[in-house]
Amino acid sequence: MNKKNVLVAQSGGPTSAINASLAGVLKATIDSDNYDRCYGAINGVLGVLSENYLDLTDKAKEDSDFIKLLNQTPAMYLGSCRFKLPEYRDDDSSYSFIFSQFRKLNIGAFFYIGGNDSMDTVLKLSNYAREIGSDVKIIGVPKTIDNDLCNTDHTPGFGSAAKYIASSLLEIAHDTFIYAVKSVTIVEIMGRDAGWLTAASALARNGYSTAPHLIYLPEVPFDKEKFISDVRHELSKRNNVIIAVSEGIRDKDGNYITSSKAMADTFGHQQLSGAGKALEFLVKENIDVKVRSVEINVLQRCAAHLASKTDLDESFAQGKKAVALSEEGQTGCMVVLKRISNAPYQVEYSYAQIKDIANEAKSVPVEWINREENDITEEFIEYLRPLIVGEAEHYYENGIPKYLDISHLNQKH
């Protein structure tokens, strides 16, 4: 039998676990009876359009530790892009070239690892494949720290980011509580439209610390006057108040609460900055207290030294599941997780049609936000807690984590 090859690429923002999914795809391809080689496109779909590939099968053969190191290396070994394919009915030149590459490389399945915008690419390529009668299987492998992909319980990368955020909030509490003076610390966390990451800050709470004392998510309108009232109330109970806030909080009219004008990316998403700083100024203007804002920013995305073992294991398994789905003949779909139980924590791996996922976003259920709209419920915490469990194994060199060489991403083409 003439075996086919597979092609895999990564797109969108980085995470601590996206390479674990790549490692899963590679391992399943090597173990497959149906596929021969696993090629990786550099910088997402742009790598296909520029014919820029790595033979990942050779990499794994040359280095017996390659898959193991890939599994613990943060961000994207293959690099990324934020490229929006045009509608093929308007311009099919990119599609025609991509599928000519599939034929050239004898590709039987294409796996695209990414978030919402990447699933848009999976949808478009799937539709085009059906239009031209191609038998190449097109399958999405999820990732996004934002945890906003529909039809899946949670996404790879979210658990590790949640673990980092919770750990950081606890450390901020230790830093702040040492001073016997009234203070407010505002921590801005990523989340343009969904507050999953900000909600994860509640996992920092323990027997001696209830920080963060206030949590504000973009799913409900933000009221400045109520915010000041909430802060005053918390200051009446304790010296140090710690607040977690999503970057995407907005008022009842839908206007973002930022300290600077937002720009838009190629997909039309506003690039936000300054929600924490805006609230810092608001507190300074209304309350005579020491106040500072902290923007965690990109640190929460690729903190592999605090990765969740559960997250990495599930990400690897979802990469393997994508290959299995293609061998079963599935296409135009994305790997999904279905939670069976919280205690003991169990999930099963399945798939959902990409048309029901692409260009949609999953918000935090409003019933998981408290009545005062400044905290989350215990049910939400029970959902979050299993996702950060377990410490990933790391390898060190000269005291620094050892990751795979990514110099191929910094080469001029």
UniProtKB/TrEMBL annotation:
Regulation: Non-allosteric.
Organism: Butyrivibrio proteoclasticus (strain ATCC 51982 / DSM 14932 / B316)
Single GO cellular component term: cytoplasm
Main location (coarse class): cytoplasm
Name this protein carries in UniProt: Pyrophosphate--fructose 6-phosphate 1-phosphotransferase
GTP-binding in keyword set: no
Active site: 146 (proton acceptor)
Gene3D superfamilies on file: 3.40.50.450, Phosphofructokinase domain (3.40.50.460)
Entry similarity comment: Belongs to the phosphofructokinase type A (PFKA) family. PPi-dependent PFK group II subfamily. Clade 'B2' sub-subfamily.
InterPro entries: ATP_PFK, PFKA, Phosphofructokinase_dom, PKF_sf, PPi-PFK
Recorded catalytic activity of this chain's protein: beta-D-fructose 6-phosphate + diphosphate = beta-D-fructose 1,6-bisphosphate + phosphate + H(+)
Site feature (Important for catalytic activity and substrate specificity) residues: 117
Lineage, highest ranks first: Bacteria, Bacillati, Bacillota, Clostridia, Lachnospirales
